[in-house]
Specification:
α3 links the parallel β11 and β12. The radius of gyration is 40 Å and the shape is extended. It is of the alpha/beta class. The chain is built from 14 helices and 28 strands. Pfam families: FMO-like.
Length: 704
């Protein structure tokens, strides 16, 4: 990293001091932690800062140990929204994907004692990653980035950040606004940052005076014993909250479900939870990558049938129709059933699929007209998810020429970015897990790492002092966006409305191809799609690289010309023909030499054994075992030897092993080599059925 790119304080004495960071990362969730780790590991950069508005790391899975309350309405009689800084349901909610899918490749999670760890376990894992990577001192919590603006003359990003110091005597937050500058900004905000507070289709919000909770902002200590609770939502969070609440002393639990989800049976730990907790950390530690193997996916119809069979086997018959999805499997995120269906048998539980229409003092109304029904609600829990299609909310981002990022996205029909990472007109600004990068039905960790690796390859030249700024070309962004939207139309994600597409709008969340495809694109970025403003050092290095390419091309061209002329000369001068003639002559000589040598050796063999040659007639009327064996081996020996004594047999075999003749030995259950030249047998003469061109030599006197 260039020496000039270091953390420093600027304008310290003119009344407007600011801190300069070579790199600023927004967000300390999984994406921000991955970016911090890879900045240090791949780019050798330790001059960066990670800002997060929460009081703990982890993003959507973190909790605030020092929760505070703020009223969402100014009137004293309005409901209280407990804002404990995001998700603190770690004792209730678990990861809905196996632990090994929720760990980084550079920091595998071998220590998980269950397949589906709790939110608390996942936060502990992230803390361990931060500790091992040595980036804990780079993270600044309780700090919210308000706005970003590109300063063209300095080629830097100016940021306004708000720091929360605590509460005053009246319980209000005390904040301070600070200005910081950065050469590079990495947004790791994620899409699960801003929760969906209240459905727009529900009227009379201000009239509800009960307790209002959101699954994304849950108080540390709260009791719902003896209360009528209404839970809104049927996604991953709601499917885990419902059975957990039924384990408490709630008076009743009514769950409002807009659409039925596809439920997948929960995967049980092999050998039971105790055995898995004992052996899994050791096995995964000794065999890295074991947890990443998975069977091929079944056909969609078969999987749908399996999910429906699971639902009908566990859910009450009354709810079967309500729990049958009307869209294809995969269009929305599948849910691992964690006792949600079994909990529906509890007499305190009621599943309601009529649309939620309004609220009153401590009640809610569902349905229309004569079909309407009202439920008492001491506590209303919103498990309605997040504004997933609103990237970077509520941060204001202004790029070149005063261009607003959110304004640009609005004119293009939705958020977009080149490879989900960079946007034209916003130099040195990179998104982690940006638009159209999500996998859908497996862990997002691979998508995060792919985005981080792509960003690191673009950031490294900036930190090395070679590049002043970098951004994608407009034509490259348009080509990418056109391809993504074309491919998205043919996927299952386009077959229904979901949080992926914001209720029917353009799907700016999912990646329509495989993560392997995304990995390869991020692994080998096309620099020709980027506009780079080079520094003198970068221009010099680029010049040397171009000169090197010219030299290599020149050398290869000269070599090709030289070999072409050499080949032409050898052909014209007849060298090739002479070499070919010489080679053929040598091969003929060797062949004749070998043939003569074999003839001599056969003669020597006969002389050595003092035997006359006997021409054997063709005897087809006497098929024997030897005949069958020789036929199967496709043997046509030139000479056959049948020794009459052990001494003669020893002489024959000793000579054959010292010669270059190809021979075989048959008789008494053993055979070796091939009988191209000689076949030696210890059997009687009648055992042979020979080719008429073969010769038989009887060794010794007499016959047996």
């Amino acid at each position: 990293m260039a020496g000039s790119l270091r953390i420093r304080v600027e304008n310290a004495y003119d009344g407007a001091p600011r801190t300069f960071y070579p790199v600023v990362v927004i967000g300390a969730g999984a994406s921000g932690i991955a970016a911090g780790c890879r900045l240090k590991q791949k780019c050798g950069c330790d001059q960066f800062r990670i800002f997060d508005r929460q009081s703990g790391i982890g993003g959507g899975c973190s909790q605030d140990m020092h929760s505070f309350k703020t009223r969402i309405h100014s009137q004293e009689n309005r409901p209280v929204m407990y804002k404990s800084r995001w998700l603190s349901l770690e004792k209730i909610l678990m990861q809905d994907r196996p632990a090994f899918f929720y760990s980084f490749s550079f920091a595998p999670n071998y220590l998980s004692k269950t397949i589906f760890p709790s939110g608390r376990d996942y936060i502990d894992y992230l803390y361990n990653v931060v500790k091992r990577a040595g980036i804990a001192d780079k993270i600044q919590l309780n700090t919210e980035v308000i706005s970003l603006e590109w300063i063209e003359k300095d080629a830097e990003w100016e940021q306004y950040i708000s720091q929360v110091y605590g509460q005053d005597s009246r319980g209000k937050k005390t904040e301070a606004v600070e200005i910081v500058r950065a050469k590079v900004v990495i947004s790791a905000v994620g899409v699960l940052a801003e929760s969906s507070e209240w459905p727009s289709s529900v009227a009379s919000r201000d009239t509800y005076n009960g307790q209002l909770l959101h699954s994304a902002r849950w108080p540390d200590k709260i009791s719902l014993d003896g209360q009528d609770v209404v839970l809104v939502g049927s996604g991953c969070g709601a499917a885990q909250i419902a059975p957990a609440l039924l384990q408490t002393k709630v008076k009743s639990l009514t769950q409002i479900m807009r659409t039925a989800p596809w439920l997948v049976p929960r995967v049980e730990e092999p050998g039971g939870r105790d055995a898995y907790a004992k052996w899994a950390p050791r096995i995964y530690g000794m065999i890295p990558g074991l947890g990443y193997t998975r069977p091929n996916g079944r056909l969609r119809k078969q999987e749908e049938a399996s999910c429906l069979a699971h639902m009908r086997a566990l859910a009450p018959i009354t709810y079967h129709d309500q729990l049958t999805p009307t869209y294809q499997l995969g269009c929305k995120r599948r849910i691992y059933d964690n006792d949600w269906l079994r909990g529906m048998h509890d007499p305190r539980f009621m599943l309601e699929s009529r649309p939620w229409r309004s609220v009153a003092d401590t009640s809610i109304t569902v349905g229309d007209g004569d079909n309407a029904k009202t439920y008492h609600a001491d506590t209303l829990i919103l498990a309605t998810g997040f504004e997933a299609t609103q990237f970077l909310q509520p941060i204001s981002v202004v790029g070149r020429h005063g261009l607003s990022l959110h304004g640009l996205w609005a004119t293009c029909g939705g958020p977009h970015a080149y490879l989900g990472t960079a946007v034209d007109g916003f130099p040195n600004f990179f998104l982690i897990l940006g638009p159209n990068t999500f996998s859908g039905h497996t862990s997002v960790i691979m998508a995060i790492e792919n985005s981080v690796d792509h960003a690191m390859r673009l950031i490294a030249p900036i930190l090395d002092g070679q590049v002043e700024s970098i951004e994608p070309k407009t034509i490259a962004v348009q080509t990418w966006l056109t391809g993504i939207r074309r491919d998205m139309a043919s996927t299952v994600f386009a077959s229904c409305q979901s949080w992926y597409n914001g209720g029917g709008r353009y799907n700016s969340v999912m990646y329509p191809r495989s993560q392997l495809d995304f990995y390869l694109r991020c692994r080998f970025p096309r620099l020709s799609d980027m506009n780079r403003m080079l520094k003198p050092q970068g221009r010099e290095r680029q010049l040397w690289r171009r000169m090197g390419r010219v030299v290599v091309v020149g050398v290869l061209t000269c070599a090709l010309i030289f070999y072409r002329e050499l080949w032409k000369y050898t052909v014209d001068s007849g060298i090739i023909d002479r070499v070919a003639d010489t080679t053929m002559s040598m091969m003929s000589f060797v062949s004749r030499t070998v043939q003569e040598s074999r003839e001599d050796q056969l003669t020597t063999l006969q002389s050595l054994l003092h035997s006359d040659k006997i021409i054997t007639p063709d005897l087809p009327e006497h098929p024997t075992l030897v005949q069958t064996w020789a036929s199967q081996k496709q043997m046509n020996p030139r000479l056959l030897i049948r020794p009459n004594s052990t001494e003669s047999l020893s002489k024959a075999i000793a000579y054959l092993y010292s010669s270059s003749l190809e021979f075989a030995i048959y008789g008494h259950g053993f055979m070796s080599a091939s009988a191209k030249d000689v076949l030696v047998s210890t059997s009687s003469l009648d055992d042979f059925h020979l080719d008429k061109h073969s010769e038989l030599v009887t060794i010794g006197a007499g016959q047996t």
